[in-house]
Amino acid sequence: MNDCIFCKIAAGQIPSDRVYEDEQVVVFRDIYPKAPVHLLMIPREHVDSLETVSATHEALLAHMLRTLPVVAHRAGLEGGFRTIINTGRGGGQEVFHLHMHLLGGGTLPGF
Ligand code: DGP
Fold it and tell me: CB under 8 Å to 27, separation ≥6 — which residues?
């Protein structure tokens, strides 16, 4: 956890282009954007991935999901947005601190 890059971003030890924060989450621009708007929402608390959440994280997860549309609207994504949670190596997760990708601002490819 001490080497977790997203913990360091949440703590302000590594710079990021932060667009939103509250007592539970931080949202910043992805360094390798896959869409005109590509944000990452992370909890301030370190959680490895969706596979390691427990009942104690239910309120946090609800907060994250409820906050995503607020952040999307602030980012100008009035027409909608895509949310992705890569989970585990097989799911394409590269950073093992739970994060939700928020993408939009153009015509997103289907998959
Ligand atoms: P995932 O594959 O779901 O683990 O996506 C991790 C994302 O994190 C990837 O799209 C690139 C982004 N990322 C990795 N390191 C940094 C960083 O230091 N700063 C920012 N802003 N984004 C990062």
Answer: 18, 19, 20, 21, 39, 40, 41, 42, 67, 71, 102
pLDDT digits (tens, 9 = 90+) for 71-87: 999 999 999 999 999 99
Which domain range does residue 80 map to? Answer: 57-111
Q: Return the residue whose CA atom lies nearest to atom 17 of ligand 1.
A: 31
Report the nearest atom of ligand 1 relative to the CA of 86: 3
Q: What is the CATH number of the domain that holds 95?
A: 3.30.428.10
- Using the 8-state DSSP alphabet, how is residue 36 labeled? S
| Secondary element (H or E) of residue 10 | helix 5-10
